[in-house]
Specification:
729 residues, alpha/beta, Rossmann fold, seven-stranded parallel beta sheet, 30 helices, 50% helix, globular
Length: 729
Amino acid sequence: MSTQASILPPVRDAELAGGQSRAYVRVGLDALLAERSANVLGAATARGISLAALRDEPEPPKDLDVVGERVAACMQRLRHARLDFARAAAIVVKSKTYAHYGSGAFTYAAEELANVVATARLETTKKTTSGTGSTRARSRDSDRKVRAMIDDAFAMATEAVRRNSGFVLHIEQILAALALAEDCCVELATGEGKTVTAVLPATLRAWTKRGVHVVTVNDYLARRDADTNRGAFEMLGVRLGIIQEGSEPHERREAYRCDITYAADKQFIFDFLRDRLAAPLGVREGTLLLRDAMGGDDAAIGALEGVTHGWRERIVQRGLYAAIIDEADSVLIDDSVTPAIISSGAETGGDQRHIEVAARIAREWKQDELFTVSEKQRRVALTDAGRLSLARAAREFPSYHAGPRRREALLIQALVSRVLYERGRDYVIREGKIEIVDRSTGRVLPGRVWELGLHQAVEAKEGLEVSGRRTTAARSSYQGYFRRYAHMCGMSGTCMEVGPEMWTWYRLPVVKVPTHKKLARTQGRDVVHVTQEDKFTAVVGRVRESRERGQPVLVGTWSIEASERLAIRLREADIACDVLNAERESEEAVIVARAGEVGAVTVATNMAGRGTDIRIGPDTAARGGLLVIATERHDERRVDRQLFGRSGRQGDPGRAETFVSLEDELIRSQGFKPLVWLVKRSRGPIKNAAAWLLWTIAQANASRRWRIHRSDAAKASAWHDKALHHVTR
């Protein structure tokens, strides 16, 4: 399915009289295409989308354009940073007028308002600085009508939420919904009610009958959020669909035909790729015009365009109009590093022997003698001695891979998989296959593979059957996919740090909405230890102390392996605990439900910081609320904030503490050596100041490294898509 086929609405005004010839259709086709293309480009320009965006080629700014890009981003942030509290308060007041409506009257009012929205333009016109006074007056009048319509829709949706769940939306949630309606990315603190806030903009877009996709980070959250909001959507006359991992094609098609569809990001993007494979290559806008012109006669279209009959029954999506993305920084930034790829098959057999040979050699080599590792740049380089050793081993490779360049590339990839990719941190093994773990969220990324032979190198390292060379049938970067939506917005508890990237790749300005209640969580100073052994001993002691008081504890770890190791130490100390990581993802709902109970102890990777609310009762609050202990600082500060956000939600009491050591990966890879020496040998205020500076610099360097890595990955994906657009879809 082409880019235009995804963006353009169905053509309804190109029907011809039944007696007209097919030749007339062909003669008029070019003119219709030219007119429609001009309309598409004009609409894209009005939204600030470049031609590159329509071609699925996100291109970062270069040279002096970088300055203009940053100025534009700053202007957009300033424009949306002015939150209209008076407007939000007026919507809350207006929603109370609907409280007196009976169910029948409320349903009728919702239907009437939905009809108005369906026939009106939701986009407010741009400010007019030229033209006659009457033109500017009409523009302002149109803006006022659109704003009034949005306010009415939000007021009615607010009342529907109250009737469904008994939860009265507060002003801050209304402010977030208004920002979402303007296609912004909203930072709304953990526990502020992002799930129900999405009802307002989702209903507004759903009433246009073009379809709204609500994107979550996994199937569990999609099901949970849809079930939470189902009653409110039904009151508003909106049909709701859910897609899960095991959904059949006919179930997916029916879900996409609903007004609102809830699913994980992987479901949307892989359905999009499967539809591109199902649709013939010849399908372009011309085919859509021919379909309307010929009254939907597939046989006639197939005869003219070479289109296979019945392909429309195989696709499931009906277009990409609007998307509301929960945990937007995770989906749009973290997951975007690895593109979505569908392979047409794999070749097996002796063709993979060179990978196994490289893995065996890599296991025998000694670091610093035959190769060097840069943990800061995550790169491996061969020494002169290593090249000589590899030359002597060249006869072990198949002849095609025995040349200097090919054998070095193979061995470097094998060494990278050995020293830079760790089981339990970067991947897990399920049913004899490698599954990638997102380092920012701790969640598994099903169906994703590393490129350029890295995935096969990891398989050979673990002694698994090496998958054959794959032929890419369809692929899309996350930037390329999500830029296809006509309207896109997102929510997250931590997205301010990635604001520049949101604007560069998706044209999403980031808006921060204040909390409804003052934050009551206290933040302890980082406790610094020299070794990891001392650190974990101190963590076990702190957990025992809190558990004796009945205070629940959530301990966050960097990797799966660290979470399992800490759980063993806690159990050896007679402290019962639950473990939540990528290998126990199916137990997430049960573990999270009891994590806030009196005396509960939960050990989790970063996945506990995404999309889950740990609720506490009065007994827990009386004991100080939830205590969150981080056993390591993450590369990016926003991930630490996600974990700390589990405590102190909606004004609840809570505390966050951090235990770190000089042997942590962040310090080993990014630490400034003189500061490490100073922290080891100093005491008191000097040690505290040096430690704060050490971790601040290390985290800033690591964040910058990941920004560069994501930018390079996005550029590579854009280049790959452009280079192979004749081969893949």
